[in-house]
Amino acid sequence: TTASGEFAAAAGEHLLTMSSSADTWVEIVDADGSHLEMDLLRAGTSRSYSGTAPYRIMIGRASAVELSMDGQLVDLGPHTRGNVAHLTLGGQAADASEPR
Questions:
Q1: pTM for the full model?
Q2: 3-state class (DSSP) for residue 90
Q3: How far is residue 83's CA from residue 56's CA, in Å, rounded to a whole number?
Q4: Are residues 50 and 17 in contact, defined by beta-carbon separation less than 8 angstroms?
Q5: How confident is the prediction for the chain on average, in pLDDT?
Q6: Domain 5-89 CATH (choose: 1.10.3470, 2.60.40, 1.20.58, 2.30.30)
């Protein structure tokens, strides 16, 4: 038999939470290549995501977004250029990966 969703959450999964104070484009892809998000996050909206880490994340209008992983706030500043953030979270180190 296969494990239920409750058991599947144990290995390699983290909780991402994102809230936006302005409309912003968000793309989140997990380690399995699943698109957890690929849409416009409207101002005043908060969303949560779970999947298999590491997560590749792109956030447009990064200055308007607050991102946390497992309850810890992620500083988007070092990963932002032109108000667009590109980062990878949840791998061996929770920091930006080299561009591919």
A1: 0.79
A2: coil
A3: 17
A4: no
A5: 85
A6: 2.60.40
